[in-house]
């Protein structure tokens, strides 16, 4: 069995294994301990395994299958809230992927002057963004349950690397929930003050240790709420240093936050520069093997941004082999018409 086949087998079998374990535990009178054992297994074995893989599509299958199961472990004497933070983040990202495809369909329809198709795509795009926001808001709420502090006012006492990791993911849940809710016209009713709490919560983490993400998150809040920016701080210098910190460690997730900040400001040339840097990093920087999954998610998100820009300009997404280059480059060697695609 190949590595790829083993990964797919793992992702498909996990929900059945967990369900069987719960039934077995109940049958043998181990309910009081089975929840804690299962949570420990997922934290120590399943999550690290998933983070080492690069099959995001199969990760979506697993996350969407387990998102409802994991929180139910609270009924059998377990505290699954940190795991729920992770699965809500993944399942929310999966809904975002679908929203991006609908955005591209909308833009192609506009390009072809097909009004009905454009309207239908926009409706479905907002539905998926609403779903993503709801899932991510749930992840943020689980973060509040997982740590015994008032988020935005206190920092938890982290006992392990895992504690810090889930805290970071939960902050990302909150930030993404706000952004996706705004994009779906507030259908998920995500409180805007979550953004400020996320910004303060990011200060609880060491920026160097966590790939520049804490500072990038704070810059996103400062740009959105300038009155909360500390005096003498230049947000975009902080952002640039955060991106470089991540790239030096082979972690490109920070580029996604930076790109979203620039998109919100309409600075598309900066987004192009980040995408070019992403491709340069792919060839020059070795990805951290413990986090291939996160690295792949980051690249998918940046490619989606590239697809949007290409579709807006040419009516079709980034050509095969064209990621990292653009239609208006001076020495554009990208073949925007691939004869194989036509055939």
**Cα gyration radius (Å):** 21 Å
Mean pLDDT: 84
The sequence of SSEs as H and E is: HHHHHHHHHHHHH
Envelope shape: globular
* Helical content class: 55-70%
Number of discrete helical segments: 13
| Multimeric state | single chain
How many separate domains make up the residues?
A: 3
List the uncertain runs.
Answer: 24-30
How many runs of DSSP E, i.e. beta strands?
A: 0
Tell me what you see in this structure:
With 343 residues, the protein is mainly alpha-helical. It folds into 3 domains: 7-78; 80-205, no CATH class; 209-309, no CATH class. Helix content is 69%, strand content 0%. The chain contains 13 helices and no strands. It has helices at 3-27, 31-52, 56-66, 81-111, 115-146, 161-183, 193-202, 213-224, 235-248, 253-264, 268-284, 292-314, 339-342. α3 packs across α4 (81-111) and α10 runs antiparallel to α11 (268-284). Residues 24-30 have low confidence and may be disordered.
